[in-house]
Write a structure and sequence with these properties.
The complex is a heterodimer of chains A (303) and B (398). Chain A has helices at residues 2-26, 34-50, 56-78, 83-103, 128-131, 136-159, 161-171, 173-178, 183-209, 219-232, 237-254, 261-276, 284-302; strands spanning 108-110, 113-115. By secondary structure, chain A is mainly α. Chain A has one domain. In chain A, helix 1 (2-26) crosses helix 11 (237-254) and helix 2 packs antiparallel against helix 3. Chain A is globular, with a radius of gyration of 20 Å. Chain A starts with a helix and ends with a helix. Chain B has 398 residues and is α/β, with parallel strands linked by helices. Chain B has two domains: 28-159 and 296-379, Response regulator (Rossmann fold, 3-Layer(aba) Sandwich), CATH 3.40.50; 161-291, 3-Layer(aba) Sandwich (Rossmann fold). In chain B, 45% of the residues lie in helices and 20% in strands. Chain B is built from twelve helices and 16 strands. In chain B, strand 7 (181-187), helix 6 (191-206) and strand 8 form a beta-alpha-beta unit. The chains are: A mainly alpha (303), B alpha/beta (398). Chains A and B meet through helix 1 and helix 5 of A and helix 3, helix 4 and helix 6 of B. Chain A: It is found in: Cell membrane. Chain A: It is a multi-pass membrane protein. Chain A: Pfam families: BPD_transp_2 (PF02653).
């Protein structure tokens, strides 16, 4: 079972990463900076638990705040540009953050060892979970509790006026602006929320992988972050979850037995999925069908 | 008639028993799972490790297989899983292997994967407060220094690069007293290359060489003109490149194009492989590399041939995988490992104890020492690229 618990942990953390991009995509912006916020969360949380011996919950709180503030700061200048220019701007920011951690060394002496981030060699021994007796199942429950809270908040946000405003900006920025919506504020808010979620995800990531280094937070992770909500569909938060299960659970882990063929199939199956479900796994039509099915089920059981 | 029936029934029962017993004996197989990179630019290491493990298993099976704790003979089979040199996938792979009846795993290829997955193992054996995975892992390729110290369940059969480069630079100082300046090149984003460059630079300085500068590039880089231009400007007598075959060849070709001709070239251990010769034999001519494998003994030559038949090539990394299979055979037999579904955790503990107790093992180049922190002290030699092949340049007395 440990293997499946571990896999569910990976799916949970990547869901958080995908949801951080989901917020930004709702406002019609494509951000490749989510991996950078994820990295900031990972390093901040790990430094706090390993060097300053903080409790994990407090460390995750701080990592969420730091990532959120960074996202907010990046949001103001970056969101002045649109479309492909924004993609390039956020990609550049992501690379800048990665290169910062590539050169970042902050170590202290702990007995015979030095602990802390060590530039290109990374940051090892982030062993909060095993050292505090957390079993794989405990970690799994904790991660999914965080995922559930984030999903519930986003679900509520989506159904609130704020969510409607975000979608309005995403659908037609000019029309939204004409209606009196402060477009910049909405976009920066979405970026900040995305940063907070990525910070939490990154903090957990650092602790279940026990070692982090700059290469883990590069363009590939940034691409995965936006691929999850795009592949899953933006109609609601569950689309992102479905896409993460499809990629991490099926394409990466489920097809491992195929050996070398797995990588070939990986791209082909994503292209196929995008062709079969161009608006995502869980688009508005799919959600409506699901609702009809559920509603019909209730009617028949009620009868 | 009754006696005949009873006799026939007894005979039938006996035949059935012996047949099923024979079938069971034939079916007894112990699966050894390896894992590492079989994708991306370092996939060749995974391919070679798998071939080496299969070649070793074939040799062991030809010699009768392994004797298990209950006296039964078993054949070894090999399965190899791809972790794509990705830490998250490495953790998933080791959890997957640990969820089977496996009592040990061989891998991984990449040091960054080893860092993560050794981190999820229990740090100290018997520490009830540590909920880390209790599963022995024996690394064949991941070469960054000191990794086995992360967990008492982690073991390595990789050479000590510190010792190798310490010896090499001392030898260079003795053999080439006229050479004074050195320029470094490093594949900065690859943990092994980066860590080893630190070793090279320190040893060069300690032996009185003047380090004129360092060119840095990334594992996936394909152009090196800027780095080589700076190298040319520094005009060093020695160039030391800490990079894997792919970028080593890229840099060497660029040096050739720009006319940079140092008096001596030094390379990373991992580049003493067939890939370097296939990629840039002409430009690599003369490069000196310390390595823990070369086909210089009858055993090593035979092993290299066996690995070649399995579709891989033997280098210091795959040689480690080959040796590990024989080490595991010895530990299975000495620790009386049962390899049964109901003895899995006991077998893992026995395997860990057996590996930890080893003081020396048999290697392809001679006896391999084992340290208290579960690392290997491997014999090594210096090879240089000459006429399109690796030839032994010097055998240190160690």
């Amino acid at each position: 079972m440990d293997f499946y618990f571990g896999l569910a942990q990976v799916i949970g953390v990547h869901t958080l990463l995908g949801l951080s991009a989901y917020c930004v995509l709702l406002t019609g912006q494509v951000s490749l900076a989510q991996a950078a916020f994820f990295a900031i969360g990972a390093y901040v949380a790990a430094i706090l638990t390993v060097i300053f011996k903080w409790h994990l919950f407090a460390a995750l709180g701080v990592s969420a705040v730091v990532s959120g503030l960074t996202a907010c700061a990046v949001g103001f200048p970056a969101l002045r540009v649109k479309g492909l220019m924004l993609v390039v701007a956020t990609l550049a920011f992501g690379e800048a953050v990665r290169l910062f951690f590539f050169n970042f060394t902050y170590q202290i002496q702990a007995g015979e060892l030095k602990i802390g981030p060590h530039g290109a060699e990374g940051f090892r021994q982030i062993r909060y979970f095993p050292e505090h007796g957390w079993s794989t199942f405990d970690v799994l429950v904790f991660i999914w509790l965080m995922v559930a809270i984030v999903m519930a908040c986003l679900w509520w946000l989506d159904r609130s006026r704020a969510g409607a405003v975000m979608r309005a900006v995403g659908e037609d920025e000019v029309a939204a602006h004409s209606s009196g919506i402060n477009v910049t504020a909405v976009k920066v808010s979405a970026m900040t929320i995305g940063g907070v979620i990525a910070g939490i995800g990154g903090g957990i990531f650092a602790h279940y992988t026990t070692h982090i280094e700059h290469v883990q937070f590069g363009v590939i992770l940034a691409t995965f972050a936006i691929a999850y909500p795009i592949l899953g569909g933006l109609s609601n938060v569950f689309g992102t979850l479905l896409a993460v299960i499809f990629i991490q659970g099926f394409l990466i882990e489920g097809l491992r037995f195929l050996g070398d063929w797995r990588n070939l199939l990986f791209g082909a199956l994503i292209v196929l999925a995008m062709n079969l479900r161009p608006r995502g796994f869980l688009d508005a039509g799919g959600v409506a069908s699901l609702k009809r099915m559920l509603f019909a089920g209730k009617e028949s059981s009620g009868a | 008639m009754r006696i005949v029936s009873i006799a026939a029934a007894a005979l039938l029962a006996g035949m059935t028993t012996s047949l099923s017993g024979g079938a069971l004996a034939q079916e007894r197989t112990v699966k050894i799972t390896g894992f590492g990179a079989k994708s991306g630019v370092v996939r060749v290491f995974g391919v070679n490790s798998e071939a080496a493990m299969k070649a070793a298993a074939e040799q062991i099976n030809k010699a009768g297989g392994v004797t298990l704790g209950d006296g039964a003979k078993a054949k070894l089979s090999v399965e190899f899983l791809d972790d794509r040199c990705n830490a998250e996938e490495g953790i998933s792979v080791i959890r997957r292997i640990a969820s089977t009846d496996a009592f040990v795993a061989i891998g991984p290829t990449c040091s960054n994967v080893a860092e993560s997955l050794f981190g999820i193992l229990q740090k100290k054996v018997g520490d009830a407060s540590d909920s880390g995975l209790q599963f022995p892992v024996f690394a064949d390729v991941a070469a960054k220094g000191g990794l086995a110290a992360i967990s008492e369940w982690a073991f390595r059969n990789v050479p000590s690069e510190l010792e190798m480069y310490k010896s090499l630079f001392a030898w260079l100082k003795r053999e080439h007293p006229n050479l004074k300046t050195i320029y470094g090149g490093v594949e900065k984003d690859f943990a092994h290359s980066n860590a080893t460059y630190g070793v090279m630079k320190k040893q060069a300085e300690e032996n009185g060489f003047q380090v004129l500068g360092t060119g840095e590039w990334l594992l996936n880089d394909t152009t090196f003109s800027t780095q080589v231009r700076e190298m040319r400007r520094a005009n060093p007598e020695i160039v030391a490149i800490s990079a894997h075959p792919f970028t080593t060849c890229g840099v060497l070709r660029e040096m050739d194009r720009q006319g940079v001709k140092p008096k001596l070239l030094i390379g990373l251990t991992s580049s003493s492989s067939i890939e370097t010769l296939q990629g840039c034999a002409k430009q690599a001519e003369g490069i000196i590399i310390p390595t823990s494998f070369a086909p210089v003994t009858p055993e090593a030559k035979a092993a290299a041939d066996n690995v070649s038949k399995q579709g891989g090539s033997m280098d210091l990394h795959s040689a480690a995988a080959y040796e590990i299979m024989f080490i595991l055979k010895d530990v299975i037999e000495s620790q009386k490992i049962m390899a049964k579904p109901d003895t899995v955790q006991a077998d893992r503990n026995k395997m860990r104890q057996g590996l930890a107790a080893l003081k020396e093992t048999k290697g392809l180049l001679g006896t391999v020492g084992r340290t208290n922190d579960r690392e290997a002290i491997k014999p090594y030699l210096y090879v240089h690229a000459k006429d399109g092949s690796w030839q032994v340049l010097h055998k240190p007395s160690s």
